[in-house]
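Sharing a chain and its predicted structure for anyone who wants a worked example. Both blocks are below, sequence first, tokens second.
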Amino acid sequence: MNQEPALPADAVSGLIQALNKLPGIGPKSAQRLAFHLLRASDEETRLLAEAIVSLKQNTKLCSVCFNVTGSDPCRICANEQRDRTKICIVEQPQDILALEHTGVYSGLYHVLHGAISPTEGVGAGDVRISELMARLGDGSVSEVILATNTNLEGEQTALYLSKLITPLGIRVTRLARGLPFGTELEYADDVTLTRALEGRQEL
């Protein structure tokens, strides 16, 4: 019978509690992960620990779009081949990964790092809207695509942004309703996202 490597009980429970705080990881999954790490080699656990430390030490926010990056500006903002007349607004950096995976969008992005939610005490000043408006001030952008999540907070944010941007004479579009209400962008499949991008509508 295989025996679990010996480790103080408080260390095991501490790791389980830490893993349980990760999104999508319940108590049972946290327990399975903790004991998987116990069985892993010293090299595997060292590489994982170093990757986590490196993530915190070597990443920053792009000063242009506020995506997570290792260099500033990020590779998307620095890419002269991107269409600089379009900016797609998303709530979180992982939303960019989902949209880029479709391969159909070639413009730039802007990450809000949240959504307006009065019930949660999150106002327009708590997300990166002022930085967005500053980007739009030079007149080079002709279309803003609102790709906030299709939930109440995302819809509120999209409506607020539309009211701010439309008077600037910039075309404002919203991802098509191929995305069911309540869907978070990062979990949508490629086909749905592609249709949502291609069928975006004026706001």
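Comments welcome. The helical segments are 9-20, 27-39, 42-58, 75-78, 93-102, 129-135, 152-165, 190-198.
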